[in-house]
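User: Just a sanity check before I run the rest of the batch. Below are the structure tokens for the first item. I only need the designed sequence back.
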């Protein structure tokens, strides 16, 4: 697509990386500043009219709201109203699949701090997207080319 790509893991502060490397799951207090940093990156790209893709485990609805609105999403506990213009227009792609498939892929991945034993805590934290969030759900049981095609056809 010619879009900029960002891997959210590259922006975790050292304390978060250390915690995960020790097998300790992150909590909201660990994640919110990281998500605010990611929001700032997306805002910068939006301001320069550059489309971007961010690979990020935005596990909770609140985390996705922070990506859209930044720190103001935390201060405003109000639910989004239909017709509201969020700070950023983001399409969330929820890659959905059983834990065993994701665990198998995670084990094949070389990663400095995301240990396979943290996967269960991510499933425990997960709040799948729902209306009125702007999202699609794509099954991880499909082949990689099928997954990419489904996402591209939705974007384009």
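Assistant: Here's the designed sequence for the first item:
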């Amino acid at each position: 697509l010619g879009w900029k790509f960002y891997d959210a893991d590259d922006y975790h502060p050292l304390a978060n990386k250390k915690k995960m490397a020790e097998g300790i799951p992150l909590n909201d207090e660990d994640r919110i500043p990281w998500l605010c940093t990611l929001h700032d990156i997306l805002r910068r790209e939006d301001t320069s009219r550059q489309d971007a893709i961010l690979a990020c485990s935005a596990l909770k609805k609140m985390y996705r709201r922070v990506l859209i609105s930044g720190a103001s999403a935390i201060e405003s506990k109000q639910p989004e109203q239909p017709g509201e213009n969020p700070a950023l227009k983001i399409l969330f792609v929820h890659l959905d699949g059983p834990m065993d498939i994701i665990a198998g892929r995670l084990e094949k991945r070389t990663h400095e701090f995301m240990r396979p034993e943290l996967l269960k805590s991510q499933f425990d934290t997960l709040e799948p997207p729902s209306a009125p969030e702007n999202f699609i759900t794509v099954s991880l049981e499909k082949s990689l080319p099928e997954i990419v095609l489904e996402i591209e056809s939705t974007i384009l």
